[in-house]
Amino acid sequence: MENRINSVSPISDLEIRLQDTMCVNESQLQHKWYHNLKYMVVGILFGITFIKAEIVSWFRIQEMFRFQSFHMYGVIGTAVVVGMISVWLIKRFNIKTIYGEPIVFYNKTFNKGQIYGGLIFGLGWAITGACPGPLFAQIGTGALAIIVTLLSAIAGTWVYGFFREKLPH
Amino acid sequence: MIDLLKQPWPWYVAGALVGLTVPALLILGNKHFGISANLRHICAACLPSKVPFFKYEWKKEIWNLFFVVGIIIGAFIATTFLGNSADVIIHADLAAELAGYNITDLSNMVPKDIFSLKSLFTLRGFVLMVGGGFLVGFGTRYAGGCTSGHSIMGLSTLQLPSLIATISFMVGGFLMANVFMPYIMSL
Questions:
Q1: Contacts of B63 in chain A (CB under 8 A)
Q2: What is the model's pTM?
Q3: Which of A100, A137, B17, B121 could tie A50 with a disulfide, CB 3.0–4.6 Å?
Q4: B95 in a structural domain
Q5: Does A104 sit within 8 Å of B132, measured CB to CB?
């Protein structure tokens, strides 16, 4: 259980953002908004892949959890191997960002939330057939009813944030 | 070429492309792949409150919201211009099980029989759509990440907590699909 929030010394914005997340961004570069469009282009390619490989298919997720198909294991396994090799290459050759900044990695510390939260997410994943990324993609396919599911996921995140201090970590 | 793109892509092509998202985001600007964080940024941006967990400068993470808008656009492009109208081919055992739940429409990524506005106003549909979404949002943040943040980014950087989280995701999903789902589907 972390009590840092209630302590007298104010905690920094970065510290709050670092709670329970994998991704923070502390670049000192100031960019115009349109510099973010390059992430949208990556998102578009990612979204196309999601659909064309049926990663966001509710049916493929059901097969995965019933061990009826190798497809999703193949996708996730290949992604992890490609990701690992990429990260190794970035570290090995000290590759910089396109702006010349060194690439920074954060180590994750263990807390029990990864087990409790992980189990809760897993239960939901099998119901919706979607983790958060595919929820957005399913809406993009025209399945507009999934907007309800996404709003409920946002509500779930908010409720977690509200009760965070009382939950075991 | 276009015909080839219209076919369902094999797992090794898709897996490689998903994996390449990790270095792409890092090299474009030190960004760490993690989609569930957006649910938190939306809370921070749209639901002003005194909850300390949401009191941070969400605009510093706005790149991630651009990324998910891209996902929505990409999904639309793939469905509209690269789609094929064939039903998804699923394992015979799954098809039989789903038919037992009156799920027979295999024409979409999402089964219309249970995820639709009409279904939302039934007990089963409400539990699946609202309950399922809530568990995804609550669980991913409690776990500190989802499939992208933990299973892909976290495992790529050899984080043990991410391996523990990934195993927990799979155990939860396995329990739901094989143990609890028949009860929920019979609501």
A1: 25, 36, 39
A2: 0.92
A3: A137
A4: no
A5: no
